[in-house]
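It is worth pausing here to work through a concrete case rather than discussing structure prediction in the abstract. The textbook approach is simple: state the sequence, then state the predicted structure, then interpret. We follow exactly that order.
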Amino acid sequence: MNYFKKTGKDVKEISSRFYKRDFSGDEGQVIKNSTYQISTQLVAKFGSLIFTVIVARMLMPELFGLYNLAISTIMVFAAFSDFGLGSSLIRFVSSKVSQKKLGKAKSYFTYIIKLKILLLVLVIFILMISAHFLATSFYQKPLFLALIAGSVYLFFMEISSILKSSYQSINKFELIFTQEIIFQTLRIIFVSSVIFLSLNYLVNEELLMFYIVLALSTAAFISFLFLFSFSKKTLTFLEHKKSNITKREKSNLNKFILAVSVTALSGIFFSYIDKIMLGGFVDGEFIGYYSAAFSFIGASIPIITFSAALLPIFSRLTRNKLEPLFRKSREIIMTLSIILMVFFLIFAPLLINIVFGELYAPSVEILRIFSVVLIIMSANALFSTYLTAIGKPLVITKSLIISSILNVILNYILISWLVNYSQLAAVYGAVFATITSNFVYLILMFYFNKSYN
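Step two, the predicted structure:
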């Protein structure tokens, strides 16, 4: 009872700050950042949900599954081009800007951008030369042209991502909010138009997937241009003369990047390995059922955690100020997670039927089982943000490596075993593997953090 009274008091305090427009102090900055970030995530996730519903209903389960498999593959390659550089930029540039060391902030920014471009070019090259093997030998599905087009989508998506990280480091969340509105609007218009025209002209599956990814690339390009147009005026620390990074500082940065990169790569495997594994064993329609159910979970986590808004603030606080803020965030997020889990358990049949239609009926039980993971994934997101902010990425790295390996092993064993009974059983195997590995990840983070202390 005391827990809920305290949570109610926190909500009342936040409401009072909004009414008075008082965003002073660290808590005020968190509230302001969180407002923009939550708004951005609401646009992103509701936009994604609308986009997913339109695409799922137009394509039907089989083609919808192929689309999700193509995007999942592209996102895995995107992780190798990010390599944790976005989080590193936020932490180090944000820290130097807050200390008024703008020349040093520019040096960190320049160094990270050079690494980003080098990795991005390399990853795009690898994606293009491996596309044929993935489509014809591993998946045995008509995705070759879509993966080739994915290199264009990956480029503009990742360049936009590093700009977003730059704006987050100086607390300019409003630009990211506007960019997200542009991207979500454009991709709904472009992709739905492409699907409508392609189906009317009886375009084959491979060309259809190709046109969809090209439409996504066009939306990503236009939204990137919007972000880029404000970069000179907004990133004012770039106007200062660079202050060289010492060997020790560069060594610390490289160690942080290396640790966070492993985290980023493992995190991507956590998010997409299930669909990729399913792609090698089941037909597209079953990937479609799985994707439809998980779309609700994926849309919920960022909204109830607002971790991206907390990272720049957490990075600037001393440990004494950080701890109570972390506890307060945890209490609010856990309450929201429990409420949402119960909502999905009760209303899953109604949600699937209204949103996706009767053809996606097998997604109902998948969503109900997946609802349990909401609490676990919300805790994971918040705790990993906290550990990153206090300079303990190694704790996350160790935990994520072990749990990611477990995730891959469980997915392979369960999917390859259960597919002998039915393709739907293989999907349930992927669900169980995802929930189990996420729970192990949370336990390991607490264990390694306690040992580290």
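Step three, interpretation. The chain has 16 helices and no strands. Confidence is low (pLDDT under 50) at residues 1-8.
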